[in-house]
Amino acid sequence: MADRRQEILDAALALADEKGLTAVSMRAVAERTGVTPMALYPYVGSKAALLDGMVGRLLTDLLPPLARDTGLPEDDASPADASPADAFPADAARSEPDWWPRLRALAYAARNLVHRHPWASALLFMRPAITPEAARSVDRIYMALLDAGVPAPEVSRVERMLSTVILGFAASEVGGRFGDGGYDPRARRGMLAGQPLPGHKALLPWLEAPVDWDAEFEADLADLRTLIESQATRWRDRPSQ
Amino acid sequence: MADRRQEILDAALALADEKGLTAVSMRAVAERTGVTPMALYPYVGSKAALLDGMVGRLLTDLLPPLARDTGLPEDDASPADASPADAFPADAARSEPDWWPRLRALAYAARNLVHRHPWASALLFMRPAITPEAARSVDRIYMALLDAGVPAPEVSRVERMLSTVILGFAASEVGGRFGDGGYDPRARRGMLAGQPLPGHKALLPWLEAPVDWDAEFEADLADLRTLIESQATRWRDRPSQ
DNA sequence: CTTTGTGATCTACACTGTATAGATCTACAC
DNA sequence: GTGTAGATCTATACAGTGTAGATCACAAAG
């Protein structure tokens, strides 16, 4: 039944967390579930569907139970974060319009999720957010943006941009796009020596310094916030456009 | 030699363009090159390296020859765009600070590249930009941001954010993350009917309308531009911070 | 003519996802 | 108890993957 499916998804998740996504084969998942590979198919359909099921389960674990999801404003830290204490630095209490803490919490939840399950980043970023769980978190973003005063026709676009930045940042962080590809700085400099790179030259002191990714995430979030607020302001100033 | 390698990369690229990335197997590439699979290894090293080589070649084709790359301001449309005429809508001529047209051209070049080679989106987004070709386009972005007045310590962060948005948008467009997963709206609504989704409800008219991706890309670029300009302004107003 | 080196080949291994057909168990009717 | 229907799992097989290891063909050097 349904619990057999959960058992299978659990096995697949454990496997991915321990040995990476490439270790998730139908045979390996089957063995871990104590069953033969073909026995998985009635429950998960196919390999691709199994992967979708895995992200679905991740989102289920992440989001708070439906009961709390009434549309009323929630308190700041608890929603959508499985380990809020260390992961969600307290903000100066801006009590009245709480759309920002809510958005912030979602952003951190997504980033923390990717940190805990790096293999999921590629899937989260590539597959459409069509599962019920994913729709729920998108809905939270919609609500926050509406509360922030973003004009309704713009909300879905801004949501896409927001999630692109946040998921993209997290995926790049764990996926190595922001890294140096494993070359040490000397070798890297050698590779790039043959061509004129005036920008790199001018920025050299800052490029060589190590990056504080937590701070960068904070800065990106701040940029997104001003972006959202400017959308709202523009709307308020001339509602015709 | 080196031209044998190019021959192999050409075969792999053609294969990917015609039948998708999954059709790029060592055996298939070998057959198309007129050689046995194992003969590829001295030239490309491994499958992963072959894929890296493919994106490298894409970037080489895209960027203008090194000669033009002197750091002097270039004319608006030509740089970094393989098919500028239809793909790069003319902007109102803001002649004096041309950092924006330059950035815009790069953004469109990246998006057009992904449109022409959808298979490359995942690779572009996941692998670090360490090849000489990639470094060159990053350098262009650095220069544009510096010209825009972005403070030097912020430039690399803003560059990362910029490329995350642009590559992320393009990848999501062709990869289906922005889509509905192949379900028609009725089925989709049925899937989501069981739970309260106040945001979706409030936005329903706008969510059902088809999305103009070109316009959305324009709007995202406009947002990025104001973001960059606000960075520059903040810096000008109080240079200490 | 022999030797050396280089590039391509052949074979083989350990995998992958999954279609198909058969086996095994459970539950209920008679 | 016996028979049977349905669900669940298993066994086998196929066509494919990337690539390690050994072999082979052939041009240039001694």
Protein model, in words:
Two copies of one chain form a homodimer. With 241 residues, chain A is mostly helical. In chain A, 66% of the residues lie in helices and 0% in strands. Chain A is built from 13 helices and no strands. The longest helix of chain A has 25 residues, at 213-237. The radius of gyration of chain A is 21 Å and the shape is flat. Chain A starts with a helix and ends with a helix. Residues 65-96 of chain A have low confidence and may be disordered. Chain A binds a DNA duplex (30 and 30 nucleotides) through loops.
List the helices and strands and how they pair.
The structure is a homodimer of 241-residue chains.
Chain A lengths: L1 H18 L6 H8 L7 H4 L2 H16 L21 H4 L11 H18 L3 H7 L5 H17 L3 H24 L9 H7 L6 H5 L1 H5 L4 H25 L4
The first copy, chain A, binds a DNA duplex (30 and 30 nucleotides) through loops.
